[in-house]
Amino acid sequence: MQFFIDTANLSDIGQAQQLGVLDGVTTNPTLMAKEGISGDEAVRKHYKAICDLVTDNVSAEVISTDYEGMVREGISLADIDPKIVVKLPMTMEGIKATRYFSKQGIRTNCTLVFTAGQALMAAKAGATYVSPFIGRLEDISTDGMNLIADIRKIFDNYQFPTKILAASVRHAMHIVQCAKLGADVTTSPLAAIVGLVKHPLTDSGLKQFLEDHRKVNEKAVVII
Ligand code: G3P
């Protein structure tokens, strides 16, 4: 299973990279705006900075909504660095653009996926990744994990090579649930990745181990 971080924040990306478990980054226009990145040159510079921090897989989303614009923008984004994956929305135009990039051998991430049918369509168009948004489904009282299970079943039935990139992941348990269901990738904020490590019994257990070690070693020093 691959771990991506869902942010455009260079410090968070750097911290996740230092853990040694990071496989990629996903961004979107909202996340870029959150970092105050605007204007074509600044956006390109920021994507390059992200690419320089990680080993591969940096999803950069197009803003255009028409096929020609998506193709033009996607080509330009892919030109920034070989690590770039062109992120395209799940629309009719987005599907056409996904097909175009698939034929060109340029990797794509089909985003804003909320149904198994949309995921099937993205796979048919040759998307490298499909991004079902589990947190946003749960926000409207819909089971996001059923969607992951349905997509896994469909992709396995026909051996689609498209990878399931579970997105809109909000916490560590989402990552665990996605892992149990066979999602290929999760993309989440740094806090959710760190949440996989944390447990209060680990902290109290370690504290006890270190105290016991210190006690016996203090005694040893007294005997000498
Ligand atoms: O990768 C998609 C993700 O950024 C959406 O997450 O938390 O805005 O629903 P969220």
Describe the structure.
- There is one protein chain.
- The protein is α/β, with parallel strands linked by helices and 224 residues long.
- The protein has one domain: Aldolase class I (TIM Barrel, Alpha-Beta Barrel).
- The protein contains eleven helices and eight strands.
- The chain has helices at residues 10-19, 29-34, 40-53, 67-78, 92-104, 116-124, 134-139, 144-158, 172-181, 190-195, 200-223, and strands at 2-6, 24-26, 58-61, 84-89, 108-113, 129-132, 163-166, 185-188.
- An eight-stranded parallel beta barrel has the order 1-2-3-4-5-6-7-8, surrounded by seven helices.
- β5 (108-113), α6 (116-124) and β6 (129-132) form a beta-alpha-beta unit.
- α4 (67-78) packs across α5 (92-104), α6 packs parallel to α8 and α8 (144-158) packs parallel to α9 (172-181).
- The relative contact order is 0.12.
- The protein binds SN-glycerol-3-phosphate.
Give a quick rundown of the structure.
The protein is α/β, with parallel strands linked by helices and 224 residues long. The protein has eleven helices and eight strands. Strand 7, helix 9 and strand 8 form a beta-alpha-beta unit.
Note the main attributes of this structure:
224 residues; binds SN-glycerol-3-phosphate; alpha/beta; TIM Barrel; eight-stranded parallel beta barrel; 11 helices
